[in-house]
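#lab-general

N.A. 3:47 PM
ok so I finally got the sequence cleaned up, no stray characters, all 429 residues accounted for. can someone with queue access submit it? mine expired

B.Y. 3:52 PM
send it over

N.A. 3:53 PM
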Amino acid sequence: MTELSEYCKVYRINDDRNVLYSTKNAATVVLKDSVLDDLLNGNTSPDIETSLGRLGFIVPGKEQEKKAMRDFMDSVDELGNKLSLVVVLNLSCNLACPYCFEGKAKGPYFMSEDAENDLYDFAARTVTDNHKEISITFYGGEPLLSIDTIIRISEKINGFAAEKGLRYSFGLVTNGTLLTGEVVRRLKPLGFQGAKVTLDGPRDIHNVSRPFRSGAGSFDVIVDNLRQVCSDINIQVGGNYTCDNYTRFPEFLDYLIGEGLTPDLIKSLKFDPVVAANKSFALTDYADWCMSINEPWVLEASVFLRQAVLERGFKTPFVKPSLCVIESKNHFVVNYNGDLYKCPGFIGREDFRIGTLKDGAMNYRDIYSLDNWKNEECLSCSYLPLCFGGCRYMRLITKGDIAGVDCRRDYYDTTLRTFVLQDIEFRQR
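B.Y. 4:20 PM
back already:
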């Protein structure tokens, strides 16, 4: 006999209809009361049972489903055909953001030519016969302060990839101040696909939170650059809000549209709260840190801003399973000096270093507390596929260690129903 999936949420939406959402498969169906009653009582017709089973709403047994979920990450790794590297080219920046999580760790530190060669050798050693693609996200500091390094690395890896029949592509996480049309024209032939750019709301808010080191505002420079390049590469816009300013972010969305940066030109747009920095790296005791995604004001802001984004026609990520790259065997973070990590949030911390480009990676299971979500409480939680134990960086910031989970139950209890209904409404549009 089949059972309703452990990873299914049921939300009533009107007098006789219900939304079922599979957190495991990101599937949504709307069922009348009578059909839902039949489902819960084991009286579903064969055709409906087949359809609901295919979408993951009903399963042969919950214990069997939990076992499959326990093995989920291994299955993802086995199917993974891409080697993904985040490469920190430098710890230098032309902005002076007061909330920067790298903070005091920053300085005139740039990747050396020896480290570039070690990166090439590491990629060549690490790719397997299962890999079809090598993907690099260039990171900083500000990666475009090292544009010549980007070019050299990409030329070398392109040559290696061609020999092996692999595709090579790269993107940037950049503040956008140097992302000009000329830069895109230089990089695009080498495999440049897109950039994630940060704009912290309207001009006056952004210029306070993301000024140039001279103190001048960066907003207009970034917006002008986006106008130049948004037709040539994929642009993802992100922004960081606080409890005091998030209500003004819709003004920023309207400004973008007014300036011609319309939804068809932006691949995705998503705002997040300013997250606390590691105390040893923090520049200041910044007053507006978010210490937990479960904070009441973050719950309110998340729903408010997502609605504002979707109402204006911008694309934002659907609610879907979220896999932490820390647990992926196909993902590494490379610091400018050749040290290896699993997440950019931990660069510079010796206790989270897992090796070097030259020597390779050691066993990092204990270092990063892998499989912290493989416990009965998490496996029985309907939100597990959306969080898989939460964020280890946030766990470290709030608890001082990463041995446990960063539980997000309160967050999803409050927001998920609205998110699912938002996705239904705006998909239909």
